[in-house]
Structures are given as C-alpha cells and as structure tokens.
Amino acid sequence: MCAQAAQVPRQQQTRGEEERFEYDAFISYAHDDRPVAAGIQKGLHRIGRRMGQLQALRVFRDATDLIASPDLWGRVTEAMGRARYLIVVLSPHSVASGWVNKEVTHWLERHGPDRLLFVVTGGHLTWDEASGRFDPDRSDVALPVLTQPGILAAEPFYVDVTEDAPWDPASPMFREKITDLAAPIHGKPKYALAGEDLREQRRFRRLRRAAITGLVLLTVLAVAAATLAFVQRQESIRQRNQAIALRLVSEAQSMLAGARPGGDARALKQILAAQSIGSEPEQAALLDAVLARKELLDIAETTATDVKDIALSPDEQRIVTGGADGTVRLWDADTGKPIDTPMTGNQGEVVIVRFSPDGRRIASGGATTVRVWDADTGAPLGTPMTVALGEVSSVEFSPDGRRIVTGSSEVAASGLVNHGAVQVWNADTGAPLGAPMTEHDGMILSVAFAPDGRRLVVGSGGPVHGAVRVWDADTGVPTGAPMTEHDGMVVSVAFAPDGQRIASGGGDGTVRLWDADTGAPIGEPMTGHAGAVASVAFAPDGTRIVSGGADGTVRLWDADTGELLGEPMIGHESWVVSTTFSPDGQRVVSGGGDEGTVRVWDVDIYSAGQGSVMSVAFAPDGRRFVSAGADGTLQLWDPDIGAPIGELISGQGVVMSVAFSPDGRRIVSGTFAPASESTTFQSGTVQLWDADTHQPIGEPMTGHQDHVFSVVFAPDGRQIASGGSDGTIRLWDTDTRQPIGEPMTGHRDAVVSVAFAPDGRQIASGGSDGTIRLWDADTRQPIGEPMTGHQGEVTTVAFAPDGQRIASSGIDGTIRLWDPETRQPAGEPLNGQAGPLASVAFAPDSRRIAYAGYDRSVRLWDTDIGMPIGPPMSRHADMVRSVAFSPNGGSIVSGGLDGQIWQWAITPAAWAANLCGKLTMNMSHRQWREWVSPDIDYVEVCPGLPIPTDDAPTGK
C-alpha cells in the first residue's frame, strides 16, 4: 500500500456537509471489473457497521444505485457530486475504458485529489515522485489522466486486491484491505476501525446465537415431536461419526508410531477420512501426521500382494515388483495402477527385480533362472540365464548395463548352505562371461559392481559369521582376503562412488565401512537397526549412506563419521529390501517387501549457505523472503519452490536483523563489525539494499556504538527504527539515511528488539534489562512506565496487526501479551518452552503467534484461548533464531543457528494437501467400508487421486 490519503474525520463535518453528501463514496470501475467493485461495496457496507445500521457507509455503484436515464453522464456526475470520496478500480479493463478516465478527470476538476482512493487489480503502479504522477512506462493500470505531470500532489493511497478473488468480504485478507480503504472514509485509524468492527462482529454473533436459540425453542414448541426425533437422529449420527473419527485417528496414530499394523499409507488416509466425517475437525491430528512424516515425500502404492522384491525406475516413473506367483509387474508410480500385463516365465517365486541403469530393461531372478525384459513392452530379451549352482539370491546390472552379475547358493538336504557361486553374464545375449566364482563361505546374499565395472563386491555368510570380498570382474579372481567382522550373514553391499570404500549391511544389524583396496575396516560399526540390514547405498557424492532394515526403518548415516543423521525414517511395514539415492542426492527411494510400496524421502538439508541464520523476513506480497547470515550475507528466496533468488548479497560483519520495506522494494539490515586489527571497538551499522538489484543504497547509517540487534521500517516506509547494544533506539530518514533527532534512551542495557505499531505512532522496544517500553514515534519520548514481568532479557517484541496487543518473548521461556493502551499484561503468560525463547511473531489474523528458541522447534499458539495449536514443528539441529509469518498467514519460515531454513504450512487445508501429496491413491470403496464404516457414504478425501477398483489386480 502506498501513502495514506488525507483524512477528513466524519465527526468534524457540519450538518450542511452531511446533508450535501448523500454518499460516502462513489465507485468508478469498468464493467468487466464488476466482481471487484461488488466486493468493495459489500465490504464498505459491512466493516464498521453497528447493530441496527443497514450499512456502515453509503456507497454508490451504478449496478445498484443508478436510475435509467437518457442523460446517463448527467446522472453519473450528479451522483459523484453527492459523494465524499471517489474509489477507482484500476485494471487493464479500466485503462481500456474511456469512461473511467472521464469520471476521474471530472472528479479532479471538481473536487481535487484529496479524497481519491484507488484499488488495483490485475496490474501494477509505479509512482514518479519527481513529476507527481504515475510513470506511464512502468505502470500498466494507470489511467491517462493519472500519468499527466503534476496531476497529484503526492502518491495516492491504494490497495492491491489482485490475489483476492473472488473478492469476498468474508475473506480475512480481503477484509483487511477493505478496512485500509474504509479507514480514511470513516475518519479513523485503521486499528481503531478494525477493533470496532471486531467488537461489533462478536456482538452480532452473540445476538445471532441468542436469536437462533429463541427461534429453535419456538420451533421446538410448535413441532415438538417431529423436531425432537430429527434432532435426536442427527445427534446420534453426529456422535456416531465423531466416535468413528476418533477411532480412525487413534488407530492411525498407533500405525504411525509403529505400534499397530496397517502402515502409514493407511494411517494418512484414515486421518483424512476422520477430518472429512467428524463434527469436530481433527486439525491437530492432521498436523501430527504432517510432522510425524515430515521427511516423507511420496508413498507410491501398488495393489500388489505377496511381493518378494520391489524397485523404482531411475526416472522415478515406474515401479517393478516380483511376486511369489512368479510374475513381474510394472506399475505407474504416480497412480499405482498396473501397466500392461504381467511378465511371466520365471520359475517359482521372483525374489529379485532390478532396473538397468538407463531404465530400459528389467532383470528378474527366481529359482535357478534370471530373465531380462524390455521395460517398455514387457517382452523377454535374450535367453534365460540358468545358474550352475543352487538358486538365485541376488542380481545386479553393471554400471554400463552391458553385464549382469548373479549370486546363487546351494542348500543341502539338511537345510544348511553348502556354498555359493557368483557369475557374470552378457546382459544382451544371456551368455556367461568366464567361469563361476565359487570360493565363498556360505550363502551369497548380495553382489554389486564397482563404479568402473572392473571389480565386484560379494556379501555372503553362514549362521556364524559373514564375509565381504572383492573380485576382479574380468578374471574372476579375488583381489584380497575376505573381510569378516560381521557376526552372521552379510546381507547387502555397495561401492562408494569413487570406488575406494565399501559399505556392508549385516544380519547383526550393523552397517560397516571397508577400504576397498586393503580390506581394512574403517571406523566403528554403525548401529541402530533392530534386525538385519537388507540394503545399503551411497549418496552420489559419497558423503552419506542410506540403509534399510528388517525393522522397516530407513536410516541415513554420515559416511565419514558413522553418525546417524536425523531420526530413522519409519513407515514400511516389513523388510526394506531396496534403498537408493536420487541422482541429485536430495531424495532417498526405498522399497518395502510384501507390502508393495515404494517411498520417497526428503533428505536434502535446506541450507542457506550463510552460516548461522540470524533473521528472516517476508516481503509484503509474500513472493519472496530474505534471510540474514552470521557471515554478513543476505539471501532472497522463492517460498513457492524453496530456491534462492539471485546470488548472495555480501555485506560486512554479522547481520543480526533484516526487514522489508512496506512496498517490498528495499531491505534494511542491522549489523555489527567485530573489532579488527585497525580498530579496538565493535561498530554497528544500518544498511539499505535494493531488493531487485541486490545493491546497497548509499553508505551505511552509523551511530550505534556496538551491535545493531534489530531494525524495522515504519508502516509508511519513511523511517527506520534500530535498536542496539549501546542501549539506544535510533530513528533514520529512509530517503536521506540521516538520523532523526536524538537517540531514545531509557533501557539500562542493550535494546534487543524494536517494532512499530501498525499506525506508526508508537514504537515498542525490548531490552536485556527485562523491560518492554513504548515510545512516541513523533516526539521520541517514552510513554508511561516500562512493562515488567520477564525474568531476564526480552528477546523479541511484536505488535499485533490490529494494534490491540504486543507480544514479547524472553529468555525465561515465556510469551507475554500486553495491552498497548494500558501497558498492562493481557492475560497470563504463555509458558512456551522449557528454555529460552529467541523469536515471536504475530499472524496476520492477530490471533495466532509463532515462537521459537533454544529447544530447536517452532510452535504455534492461539492467543484468544491461550492454547497451543498442534505439536512442536522440529527439524532444526540447533537453536531457532527467527520466525516470520507469510503475509497470507498460510506458512511460517524459520531460520536457525544450524544454518538451515525451513518453511512450515500451518493451515488445516495445507496440512490435508500435504498428506494427500504423499499418497498415490484414495481408499477404495471396499477399504472405506472396512476401515471407516459401511454406514457412512464414501468420501473422496484426496480430490484428483485415483480411486482403486475393488477388483484391482493384486499381483497374484
């Protein structure tokens, strides 16, 4: 929003003026913008309306107020002459309409620009201060009259409603913008009008509830018997549905915790079903599920059963399964639907399936044969490969896809494994290459090629111990002695990308690293799996290892230190038979045996690359946010895709605080430069930046004698307030970058946080002395006595957008709310964490707050009822330094000392969409009857996802 238009308080109008102005406002718009104009009119009618009033403001719009007449222009000008304000809808349609330009020209000639308000939709405006007009080359919705030099004395007030379709005043964001528009017409500050409107809404709701109650009582008296029966039935249905919803949630939470069979795909579907049928929406359960599976990106389900092995194609578009019935099936990874007909021809169970590196072929192994199939047509390729010894237990393609290696084992009549063999084959013809490699102790469970294809690693073992051994893939000769540290079988093996290390997973539940040349163990075993480690794989850069186990978990390890990275990823119901990294290393793909699912996990750390992230802030339009680093840099981000915008902005010192200007065109940062060889002191600076070019605007603003802890723009963008460790608050002129008056002093120690009131008339500050102070922004004098209550430093202060409350966070772990008029506490303190808090922020609705601190989590709180919203949101590995709401209130961004930035969806709709985004399909109708209830009509809980047919192929 641009500069505020001059306000003429309604209470100061003379009786003659009231009589002369029949309308408070006249709306000028192109007819193609009727929905916008209608929404504006409705909003102005409603906002600030008192009980008994038909309308808060009288607003002229041609569709509702214009009487048909041959002299149309005369009627229009007559109505404009009886209106106090002109509201103009600026859009591409209005620019193309000569009528709107004519109306504005008439208004300016008769009334001047003082009571002219604008609403922008579908374009943008750029004000040219030097010529006193909108720049015609940079404004695509400016009327011709508004581009004339000197036409306006100052930049006029306007709101942008482009993103607010369908322009319903019931929408909080649209209503807030219409409140901005209504405030000057009412002659009141926005916060005062918003507060009155909120109180009237609450009063209306109370009266409405009372009226409805009375009406219901009268209706009950009139038709008592029928109504009572109906109400009882509806209540019975409601209670039944709510009971079922609670059962679904309870079962699902047990499934997510691994305490109940069913799996996370079913759990997520049950929570979504509970949300759709419950009379009290299970919003907390939605958030619980989102956080319980925060690393899970996708569950690619199939309807296959009795699956022995499963794999995902390199392009992540198809799934292949091998079944106990001897079939190989392809499935669409997005929909879970089968592709074409099953591939048949294997003898017995298909225990191994693998895609070739290019994804064009599939190898399957079972009993004594291995077959190769065309992945597009399902046709067999070449001749079957028949192993010379025992039954097939492992199959892998070479990196170039031209060879296949198999492992097989012979089992004696006693059930003991005699020995195993490894054979290399031509993948095109099926012919063996060289003699089998048979010097193995026990069963062959895993084989893998080195990245150069010249060596093989084999994992084997008997009931006592297992062995890892490297072989020359061309000669079939072992290149070293067996590596025998595992207790029990070696179930899985993999080469590092550089071929210098080998990872192995054992039946003893450990992952081990080996030197591929010497066979020497590297470091200590990686422990954590409860059971055999069935799969191991290196990340493309070799820095991490992923393992999948018989315990159904997927774990990520640091390949250098052997430390577990993050928490185990849970969700599979049975053995995790395959794991691999995506080519970019940002995702892990795991396949579960028996259950027929492939899961994709997010293992990418959303790092700012700035060291510790000290501050984050959203742009007013929500399309960007900025992060500030301890390394002195600023980085802009696209919140929709989580990608950086442009290069890092390099500053000097440590950036402690960052903020966008109200128009989103500038960024201010507060820093301090540590003492250097040339200086013996630390100096703090305030710096302006161009948000588009990423270049500094002028020289730094200096004056603080130490750290600048906090910076903030005034609501009109003309001033900046800064707080520093020298105990002062300073005001700066944004255009001249010069200090305004003397510093504000009063805190006995550092000023850690500053915030402007929404009307710009007051400044709140929080200090290390444990106090919150209010200041008059014009006189720079303190207002009343300090607000006290925190035990120790106040780390953040924030005004609610409606101006009714101030929130403060402290190292005492509490959030406190204050009334800015009385400077008294507004309710009891909120005990946020068992540790110091570093940041607090209000949502645009002024009701919710987000806060974070030393416990590494971000939390939401409903300030009206004094209760938390859902569980903590935890992904940071260190203290969370800063949190910020998106302008639409739909998400939070957090930055921490771990150098990571996370964005959190915080609306029930977003949580439901998040869960649906992890699924491949809805419940089938049969599953709905069995899992939910046969007495409740089916609900498609994830619109757009396929609904499986009850007779879908099962793989049998």
From TrEMBL:
InterPro entries: Quinoprotein_ADH-like_sf (IPR011047), TIR_dom (IPR000157), Toll_tir_struct_dom_sf (IPR035897), WD40/YVTN_repeat-like_dom_sf (IPR015943), WD40_PAC1 (IPR020472), WD40_repeat_CS (IPR019775), WD40_rpt (IPR001680). CDD domains: WD40. It holds the Pfam family TIR_2. This is TIR domain-containing protein. Residues 21-145 form the TIR domain. It comes from Rhodococcus oxybenzonivorans. Keywords: Membrane, Repeat, Transmembrane, Transmembrane helix, WD repeat. PANTHER family: WD REPEAT DOMAIN 5B, WD40 REPEAT PROTEIN. WD repeats lie at residues 300-341, 343-383, 483-524, 526-567, 569-604, 606-638, 701-742, 744-785, 787-828, 830-862, 873-904. GO terms for biological process: signal transduction. The chain crosses the membrane at residues 210-231. Gene3D superfamilies: Toll/interleukin-1 receptor homology (TIR) domain, YVTN repeat-like/Quinoprotein amine dehydrogenase.
